[in-house]
Amino acid sequence: MTEPSAATDPTATGELPAGRTPPLDPIEADRLFRRGVALFNGVRYWHAHEAWETLWRAAPDDERDFYQGLIQVAAGLIHLQRRNVRGARNKLSEGLAKLRPYQPAYNGVFVNELIGEARRLLDDLQAGQLPYLIPPIIRFTELGTDDFSR
């Protein structure tokens, strides 16, 4: 495998596109991702959005849409909480489009489940109904060391 040259890798020269940040340490990236999931599952969508935005800005091109999709779904849920039907519909739709290529699972989470839950909300919104928000949950594909079940 050849190393990227300065001509093909803007990070090699320290020049990043606008809004991008240098790659994160993998341990820090995992911590931020898991924190975002915990915040999302705790119905703290704005805070989850903020955690994932840090990842999105530092992510390689092939992962950016995954994080942006999560951010947009979280933003859609914020709009739904505020009864902003148009904003919820737009952000959920954008988020679903970004997440679809990452099905069925990506980065250790069941993407297909999140898509299904967000899709049901979006279908209700598109049918002219304001759905009751039963908060979606992002589930990990494997049990981690944080599992306290018997």
Describe it.
By secondary structure, the chain is mostly helical. It is built from 5 helices and 2 strands; from the N terminus they run ααααββα. Strands 1-2 form a two-stranded antiparallel ribbon.
Short description:
The protein is mostly helical and 150 residues long.
Overview features:
150 residues; mainly alpha; Hyaluronidase domain-like; two-stranded antiparallel ribbon; 2 strands; 3% strand; globular; disordered N terminus
Q: Which shape, going by the Cα principal axes?
A: globular
What oligomerization state is this entry in?
Answer: single chain
User: What amount of the residues lies in strands?
Assistant: under 5%
* Uncertain residue ranges: 1-11
Strand order within the widest beta sheet = 1-2
Number of β-strand runs:
2
N-to-C order of helices and strands: HHHHEEH
Quickly give the structural class.
mainly alpha
Highest-level CATH class: Mainly Alpha
Protein topology:
Blueprint (H helix, E strand, L loop, with lengths): L25 H16 L3 H14 L2 H21 L3 H15 L5 E2 L2 E2 H16 L24
Antiparallel strand pairs: 1-2
Helix pairs in contact: 1-2, 2-3, 3-4, 4-5
